[in-house]
Write a structure and sequence with these properties.
The complex is a heterodimer of chains A (115) and B (111). With 115 residues, chain A is mainly beta. Chain A is built from no helices and eleven strands. In chain B, strands 2, 4, 5, 9, 10 and 11 form a six-stranded mixed β-sheet that branches. A five-stranded antiparallel β-sheet of chain B has the order 1-3-8-7-6, with no helix packed on it. Classes of the chains: A mainly beta (115), B mainly beta (111).
């Protein structure tokens, strides 16, 4: 496809379960971002990749959150031992270059509900 | 800490009128600002951006104004259409890769 895709679109997990969220960025895009968006709020930065290198993970809320982009394309955000406060939409975005002013293209998000 | 906020959580306008959405930011080191539009069930979509060396930038039906003195950003939409109904976010960047979003303003366009 032409845009950023994310899967699954919806995920329901029981508290304590591990989840993995996938992001397929636009082909050839160097930069990849993950955001968390709580209901009624703006997206909050989680982490940033430049190719396969994770250059900023300052937004990850705890060590239960882990992200990877091993081949510099597809990325996975993993949340271990999910908690109710992890319920949110997780957005992925990619941009073509490595400048902070490059336009970010967002996927539709994965809505995670933790019961 | 760093934050970007909005003055009005909701805005209702008549179709054809102009809309103005306001935003305040607190990090004086921010040098790049972006407006995004988010429709229900979708990710944010880039509308327009402005760098701190400018105070105005125009796009198609949209204008962004930046007042660094009072740390204020606004988005003006001309001749608002029903398709403009969405949540609008301002966002700021201080040179790194961490973009900080505001809470958002919901725009309702009445036919």
């Amino acid at each position: 496809g032409a845009g950023v895709s994310q899967s699954p679109r919806y995920k329901v997990a029981k508290r304590g379960q591990d989840v993995a969220l996938r992001c397929d960025p636009i082909s050839g895009h160097v930069s990849l971002f993950w955001y968390q968006q709580a209901l009624g709020q703006g997206p909050e930065f989680l982490t940033y990749f430049q190719n396969e290198a994770q250059l900023d993970k300052s937004g990850l809320p705890s060590d239960r959150f882990f992200a990877e982009r091993p081949e510099g394309s597809v990325s996975t955000l993993k949340i271990q031992r999910t908690q109710q406060e992890d319920s949110a939409v997780y957005l992925c975005a990619s941009s073509p270059g490595d400048r902070s002013t490059d336009t970010q293209y967002f996927g539709p998000g994965t809505r995670l509900t933790v019961l | 800490g760093e934050s970007v906020g909005l003055h009005l959580p909701t805005l209702s306008v008549q179709e054809g009128d102009n809309s103005i959405i306001n935003c305040a930011y607190s990090n004086s080191a921010s040098d790049y600002f972006i407006w995004y539009k988010q429709e229900s069930g979708k990710g944010p979509q880039f509308i327009i951006d402005i760098r701190s060396n400018m105070d105005k930038r125009q796009g198609q039906r949209v204008t962004v104004l930046l007042n660094k003195t009072v740390k204020h950003l606004s988005l003006q939409i001309a001749a608002t259409q029903p398709g403009d109904s969405a949540v609008y976010f301002c966002a700021e960047n201080a040179g790194g890769f961490k973009t900080i979003f505001g809470a958002g303003t919901r725009l309702f366009v009445k036919a």
